What does this fold into?
Amino acid sequence: MNSPIKEVDVIDLRVPTSDTLLGSDPFHKKPNYSVVLCHIHTGDGLTGISVNFTAGAGNDWIAHGVKDLAQLVAGRTVEEFIEDPGAFHKLLIDHHQLRWLGDGVARMAIGSIVNAMWDLWAKKENKPLWKLLVDLAPEKVVQCIDWRYLRDALTPEEALNILAQAREGAPAREAQLRQRGPKAYSTAGWLGLTDAQIIETIDAVKASGLDCFKMKVGGDLGQDRERLAFIREAIGPDALLMLDANQVWGVEEAIAHMKELVEFRPTWIEEPTARDDVLGYKRIAEALAPHNIGVACGEQVPSPVLFKQLLESGAIQFCQIDATRLGGVNDVLAVILMAAKNKTLVCPHGGGIGLCNMIRHYALWDQIAVSAHSNGQVVEYLNFLQDDVFIEPIVMAKGAYVAPTTAGWGLEMQRDFIEEHTYPTGAVWQGREESGSIKFLA
Amino acid sequence: MNSPIKEVDVIDLRVPTSDTLLGSDPFHKKPNYSVVLCHIHTGDGLTGISVNFTAGAGNDWIAHGVKDLAQLVAGRTVEEFIEDPGAFHKLLIDHHQLRWLGDGVARMAIGSIVNAMWDLWAKKENKPLWKLLVDLAPEKVVQCIDWRYLRDALTPEEALNILAQAREGAPAREAQLRQRGPKAYSTAGWLGLTDAQIIETIDAVKASGLDCFKMKVGGDLGQDRERLAFIREAIGPDALLMLDANQVWGVEEAIAHMKELVEFRPTWIEEPTARDDVLGYKRIAEALAPHNIGVACGEQVPSPVLFKQLLESGAIQFCQIDATRLGGVNDVLAVILMAAKNKTLVCPHGGGIGLCNMIRHYALWDQIAVSAHSNGQVVEYLNFLQDDVFIEPIVMAKGAYVAPTTAGWGLEMQRDFIEEHTYPTGAVWQGREESGSIKFLA
It folds into this structure.
């Protein structure tokens, strides 16, 4: 039966997380975690869902874009998408006028539409998204990807080979990951928290079975050193410790600062500098390699072409794909395949609202069907904005994600949460509209 | 007297240029040249103006953003901007929530506000923008720039030295450029035109005194060769010939295609591949250097950090700064200074609506006060959408821009043009609203 796109419903949801400073970093001092929630309704009663995360102000910019894109896809069918997901993706990515807008807002808005279409496809097949991906023929995966700018780093033939080789042992890995899913890690050291709050967070993270911890750095060096000593002691000498600077440094500054933190044995420094500084990342990676510190980034890398360069030049050792930064599943498949070719670990970026719910699917696909292993490929996890938000919140067990079993992404939200947090009309924002807007300063 | 920002007026203007295919290229097959026209009105009766060019659909995305940013700057004063233009720029670029949106739409929208503030500053001093820039103390220029991610390629001290050295001979160069402004070049070979139309365009371009011509390439190789032979003959053996592929190729493809065009002696190949592929551009530049073909790009380079890498790695030989792609004057000053350090020629990108009107100011500043020479630094010029659009259209003489003398950018538009082209309510769009929208497909 044909499923034509009948209506695209776009909702601007914001949560006043700035009240607690959870999620704070050197730049995003008072984020209000927000999503553009997109429902694509088909004529035959199906609903595809996606979310697009932002830090608050600007959420409406993406919502505006998604509403415009909705006009472009109206009347097209889910079958047409399934028949050639690459052509559908290209219709949006290469739109002959819209393309001028570049990446950023435009590519993120495109991702909203594309990801909701994948939700519809998975629901048609009654599979969670990861399982839909795992079961796709390699040729179908290749058909999803926009190869125009990627062939010099990875050819479609190489992608087919990677996927074909990964078929060996895939059923066993799938069975294993259904028992115990991708290993998780969490942030314990938010910049805005007191020492007592950090100990509390670490204890909670430990209690959930995790043994890898991330800490925000990038303020005063002395303070970073003090807090790092404190955290390293709290987590113990064997736990993995990751650092995240959220792009606060220049290239030289990043190298100098990190050299002063070597003794705390961090596994990686995440976003040491600007999201698009390939050559800068390369120099930082080369400077820190002798100290066994890797470089990670991805949550703000705005295009597959930038990922291509970061991966092929060895500028990053940890590839932090994000669920809503790129133009949807099609783009992310390409990045995961390029990471596999370069044998770079895939450690997806989570947090926000709904990001963890989405990235678990990518981690499962990667570990079962692409890189074909789980060694060192930890997936970010943050234990907030789940239970009150999603109808089926993420389930964790023994420090690992539990593989989801319901059809699609699993992004269905609770009606109450949606109504209360719709910006600026929801109950939560009544009388405080301005604190959810661009006028709210850190 | 204090000039507080009282009102920001944002208008979505679109011109149905798709009717004629002027402006067509491999991706933008039927562009409708459009601008977001931004007027910042102050409490004491001044008006700052900026335009932000797009290819049609998506113009409203930027307009939406500029309207949101207007809330952020409301009540701030022009004096505050003049006192510390860098701090004002940072308020927008590093907004603690908006920053999540990355570049693209967000940085372009920021550019709208910033450029209108510069217009106000120039009007306060009763100088054309180029003259305001030429007269700025080097320390003031340095204060405008966000150095966070640029210091590894250019330090503020190096920038001061470049500007100080360029003071020598500056009055003479200024006098000379007031006599005959920056040399221009123009596109004669649009993809959508017939041979007869191209000859007509070349004749018109020659008649205006120009001897450099650009041609769009990137279709079928045989057709490109045929048309190039035809154009090379029409312009003569000594005229400079530039080629522009508008990002249609992958890296290998670009190299292979261009090697087949060596005999036509192109000066540069513009945008041979993706706007953000620094490593790709570098490989293309290295492959084409032995054939004396340079690489050019910039009109879609979305951040100063990407320009930094393109310049420092020798990936481009021609730096095509654009007037509305980055976050306004502050960003462009940084790029021009980095180009000067790398001795890369600055050949600004024009066309669209209002871009030529803006870039002439940058070219004048660069040639008088930064690179301090005019050799080979040609500035793009397209002779449409001037006379019926601007109150003071661009004046060309003997193939060169005439230095403007009125205060500000000189972007004041004719009231009739604004009213007729306002989208979708203007007379031009009545009954054809859809052909100006995202639904209009190539």
